[in-house]
Amino acid sequence: MSAKNKVILYSYYRSSASYRVRIGLALKGLEVEYHGVHLLKDGGQQRTSDYAQINPMLHVPSLRHGDFVLSESMAILKYLDHLEASPRLFPEDSQVEARVIQICEFINSGIQPLQNLKVLQHLESLGLDKKVQSEWTQHWIRKGLASVETLLKETSKSHCVGADWTAADCFLIAQAFSSRRFGVEMDSYPTIHKILNHLESHPAVLKAHPDNQPDSE
Ligand SMILES: N[C@@H](CCC(=O)N[C@@H](CS)C(=O)NCC(=O)O)C(=O)O
User: Fold this and answer.
1) Does residue 217 lie in a domain region?
2) 193 and 114 belong to one structural domain
């Protein structure tokens, strides 16, 4: 591990997008300085003008490496492959890499945005009560996971794509954490369930887990 590859991570402990990146960092053994950004305190620290300079989208995670600042978990994980090649999260083979990105996107654009804090806060401001909000979230999570399950039946062995770690595993593990938080269990998705059973006890995943962060509550 080289100090020149030390990064700063702007993260919130239970943010699934932050969890994806933390898994990647831990798998690669990169040195990280953790900066907590509390999504609820002070009206949301992601919405401060200081943080807007880091990520104008007002989301965590963001990464700083020297003068280079980057947000979006997929872009960050891709960048980490350049800092530390092993394990490679985006495979060299173009078709395998595209498949990994497809799985990530099912989660990144097909599930997570529909459970995002700002979306739920907006639904609440429109008068949707907590019970209906919860039904909304669970509906999209279940639909999305069913599609991920179908895809993983074709692509997985011990991991989402074959038997090696890829970014797809980082996305799946993090999504499973937040799905459970929103009341959706994984038992209805046998392939997902099997992969999680295999991967969730890995030391890097435990290190990256929301319960084990400096800002965990
Ligand atoms: N596609 C983005 C998603 C980032 C994202 O939505 N982060 C959430 C936490 S998981 C967030 O910061 N939400 C802030 C808000 O809703 O105000 C990524 O992969 O980084």
Assistant:
1) no
2) yes
Looking up residue 120, the CATH number of its domain turns out to be 1.20.1050.10
Q: Confidence band (pLDDT; 50, 70, 90) for 2?
A: low
Q: How does pLDDT run across 48-58, given as a tens digit for each residue?
A: 999 999 999 99
Supply the mean pLDDT for the chain. Answer: 97
Which of 40, 47, 60 is the pocket-test mutation for ligand 1 (most atoms within 8 Å of CB)? 60
Taking the CA of residue 60 as reference, the ligand 1 atom at the shortest distance is: 12
Of residues 57, 37, 182, the one with CA closest to residue 118: 57
Counting ligand 1 atoms within 8 A of each CB, the residue from 22, 51, 116, 181 with the most, and so the one to mutate, is 116
CA-proximal residue: ligand 1, atom 11 (nearest): 59
Contact between 166 and 160 under an 8 Å Cβ cutoff? The reply is yes
In a domain, 54, yes or no: yes
Which residues span the domain enclosing 68?
3-87+205-212
